[in-house]
Write a structure and sequence with these properties.
The protein has about 325 residues and is of the alpha+beta class. It is built from 4 helices and 12 strands. Strands 6-5-4-3-2-1-12-11-10-9-8-7 form a 12-stranded antiparallel β-sheet. The protein is elongated and about 100 Å long. The two termini are about 45 Å apart.
Length: about 325
């Protein structure tokens, strides 16, 4: 009976030990994915910012500029693309809506981002766009890969429609969460005018006829939780200028927007709470369950050896030939 129990324990030990690497290296890459139906919104603010008054074409300091960013998963679009791509795909419809202190729109830029649900690599398909213009992304946007590394990544800039390195700078702690700090600088670059302009009658086409161009630069900063690859906080030092043309009345340039854009405090709290929750789920597959099964396998192996050893009592004769009886004497 003890020998049978020892064999059962040995079989369980082998099973648990084999399950440990399978969870980490086989199950995790296939199970960890961005939900296709995810919805997320965020509010950022730039206080004491510079903003262009398109009515007078002069810059002025305003108490606050608000940027509302939303990301909404399109499940049906993702399923259609998956059929041709041959992998799990997520389609995010994004919107960046900027409004001045009076609540009126400054700009409105929609975006469609298509990417691999597991690796976050871009998937090039019909519909990939920024402000209605087709684009071909290279590099990540919005989210880093699961198990983010301490290295530089390629990051897509939607304003300039270009990909540039975003550099790992340091490991920090943000509100009790270990994060990797990344920074990207986009130098002054000529960019398109938004198709939705703040003043009725002014369109990108009408501005183009005046010879005036729009230029942009930013310093982009992200604090990324490395297990989930999700930013817990981000900010930008953002500047825009209009240059040349008859629209400026002979001036070489005028500031269209300048401000230090930061996440609003209540959205920081909710984002940190969500990332902490998701981090626990990812850790279950990457470390806690694999290490747990490995330790359990070692314990079961030790227990099986102990049961086998105790089954063999000291001095117990090994099985052999039966001893013949002594001869009977008269």
């Amino acid at each position: 009976m003890r020998r049978k129990a020892g064999l059962i324990l040995l079989a369980l030990a082998v099973f648990c030990t084999a399950l440990s690497p399978l969870l980490r290296w086989y199950a995790f890459p296939r199970l960890a994915e961005v939900p296709a139906n995810q919805y997320q919104d965020m509010v950022l603010q730039a206080r004491n910012a510079t903003l262009l008054d398109y009515g007078t074409m002069t810059s002025r300091t305003v108490p606050e500029v608000t940027i509302v960013q939303t990301l909404k998963g399109d499940v049906e679009a993702g399923k259609k693309i998956e059929k041709s791509a041959g992998r799990d795909v997520v389609v995010w419809d994004g919107l960046s809506y900027v409004q001045g202190p009076d609540g009126k729109m400054v700009s409105r830029i929609p975006e469609r981002y298509i990417f691999d649900a597991h690796t976050q690599e871009p998937v090039h398909a019909t519909g990939e766009s920024v402000d209605g213009d087709p684009v071909r992304r290279d590099g990540i946007e919005f989210k880093w890969p699961f198990l983010t590394q301490k290295r530089d990544y390629e990051y897509f800039d939607a304003q300039a429609r270009i990909t540039a390195p975003i550099h790992y700078k340091a490991t920090r702690t943000f509100r009790g969460v270990k994060v990797y700090y990344f920074e990207q600088t986009i130098p002054w670059t000529k960019v398109p005018f938004p198709k939705a302009m703040p003043v009725r009658g002014i369109t990108p086409e009408s501005v183009a006829k005046t010879g005036t161009t729009r230029w942009y630069t930013t310093v982009r900063r992200f604090w990324v939780e490395p297990v989930t690859g999700a930013p817990v906080y981000d900010e930008e030092i953002h500047k825009e200028e209009l240059r040349g043309g008859t629209l400026l009345g002979g001036r070489a340039k005028v500031s269209a927007f300048a401000g230090h854009v930061k996440m609003r405090a209540d959205y920081i709290r909710s984002t940190v709470a969500l990332v902490k929750h998701n981090r626990t789920l990812v850790l279950m597959l990457t470390s806690r369950l694999p290490w747990g099964f490995l330790v359990l396998g070692v314990c079961l192996l030790s227990l099986s050896l102990l049961v086998e050893a105790r089954g063999r009592r000291p001095g117990e004769a090994a099985p052999g030939r039966a001893r013949e009886p002594d001869p009977v004497t008269a």
